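Example 309.
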Amino acid sequence: MDKISVIVPCFNEEEVLPLFFEEIVKVISSMKECVFEVLFVNDGSSDGTLKVLKEFSKKDDRMKFISFSRNFGKEAAIYAGLKEATGDFVVLTDADLQDPPTLIPEMYRSLTEGEVDCVATRRVTRKGEPVLRSFFARMFYRIINRLAKINIVDGARDFRMMKRSMVNAILEVSEVNRFSKGIFSWVGFETKWIPYENVNRAAGKTKWSFFSLLQYSIEGIVGYSTMPLTFAALLGILFCFISLILICVIIVRTLVWGDSTAGWPSLACIIFFIGGIQLFCIGILGEYLAKTYLETKKRPIYVVKEKSE
Ligand code: UDP
Ligand code: MG
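Predicted structure in complex with uridine-5'-diphosphate:
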């Protein structure tokens, strides 16, 4: 009998967890051909999430939990879940029912019948999402696919089922700056995509602000592409070239017409402009340096405070 592990990162989800529990129990009870473990990762919630999870594990011995010592982020929670999971197949899903658990049987069938190693989902609509957020999300996918060697499908969710071989490959990628969508693509393997319509959260609030999403997308780009560094170097070359031409123009003009270049305002503008470009490029360099710095510390990705037996 195949064992399926379902990993659920939870951060302040006490409101939605009872609804999720009901749904997931319905689904896993209907799949008689498999045994299940549902592994909740409490990512340092400050509400009653841990209490709810303890009740689940008392009620149903398929429900397990790990609880972090503080909030380490969804990426860390995913990594912890993958590490603890013992199933032949592993499902990643959010707790908020935006990832319909009813797709799990279909995913399992695709994996056992087909040749693929992973069945993942992507949203084809972004209904219910702020317009500006959708716009920037689309831009992000366009930029990262252009800059990085990996390919990330627009609207790809973390919601997916993977074979053990792929999970083991992901666990080998033990970097601290984790960007799962990138890692899933980087490890390779055959992925089948199931498109579905966006569903709104069943309860509770989203944990992502615009700023945290922006940071996350920079993490993704810096983590998978060194193109911005090349871009900075090219910009430097371009500016050297332009300044050479300008110097020639000024020399010739002075020799032929004898007039000196007028005014300091133009000079001030140029200094500001070049200064801005330089700071921008140093900023790019800094991003990479910062990531290297954090990576060399080799801090653990998460710290566990408590676990179910
Ligand atoms: N989450 C987490 N740690 C965090 C933020 C989020 O474990 O620091 C979990 C959260 O509980 C949820 C999932 O990640 O199960 C997705 O979060 P959310 O629904 O807020 O993101 P969105 O669907 O809005 O992108
Ligand atoms: Mg959500």
